Amino acid sequence: MRWFRGTADTQAKPQSKATSQRVSRRSTGFTEFTRTLAGFENLAVLDLGPTSSANISFLTNFGGRVYNEDVLRSSRDTSYFTRQDDGTMKLDPAKFFAENLNHPENRFDAVLCWDVADYLDEALVKPMVERIHKSLKPKGVLLAFFHTKDAGPDSPYCRYHIMSKEVLELEPGPDFRLQRIFNNRHAENLFKDFASLKFFLGKDNIREILVVR
């Protein structure tokens, strides 16, 4: 984990320069997320996406600390896989969580989950959310993005860069594959231990969810 103040990936391939152009999108969910940040003293934010200088700069302006864990990329580390009886390799959640998302209870005021859950191995999704719940303070907030069924199975994975309180830039990243589509009921079940959920539906087949601990 990297911390900021005021492994080789065998399954993901870099995008070519021709497909690396960033696209801007307005995010109502992120606008609501940022409104809550000013209410926290000694703000601590956990960013679960790739390290972004834009994100660090934006978030540290609120006077706190930013912690970064690229959970998706870490999950592709072959050291977390075990060989099965049939010879296939399978991700071992126990190995993964022994070294990832190990935070004290009530550590963070806010978490940026982005669309990690859509691309993450199924075995890690619910345990990840459970760990986030424990590490969030009461009244802490989480912002997560989910693709709708209209997005299609080939929706590209993108890195999120914060440009302002309303605008994010999406940069095509490694060639991670969309693993699943969460509908509203699935999302509600995923965050069942949280106090409240607020949904925002974007025009680009992305459902944004603001969750309060």
Features:
single chain; 213 residues; alpha/beta; Rossmann fold; 7-stranded mixed sheet; 3-stranded antiparallel sheet; globular
Distance between the termini: 23 Å
**Low-confidence segments:** 6-19
Overall structural class, as computed from helix and strand content, comes to alpha/beta
Number of domains: 1
N-to-C series of helices and strands: EEHEHEHEEHEHHEEEHEE
Major sheet: arrangement of strands: 1-4-3-7-8-12-11
> Can you say what the CATH homologous superfamily is?
Vaccinia Virus protein VP39
β-strand percent reads 25-35%
If classified by CATH, what would the architecture be?
3-Layer(aba) Sandwich
CATH topology: Rossmann fold
Lay out the secondary structure.
Blueprint: E1 2-5, E2 23-26, H1 28-37, E3 44-47, H2 53-60, E4 65-68, H3 71-74, E5 81-83, E6 89-91, H4 93-99, E7 108-114, H5 116-119, H6 122-135, E8 136-147, E9 158-162, E10 167-172, H7 184-190, E11 196-201, E12 206-212
Parallel strand pairs: 3-4, 3-7, 7-8
Antiparallel strand pairs: 1-4, 2-10, 5-6, 8-12, 9-10, 11-12
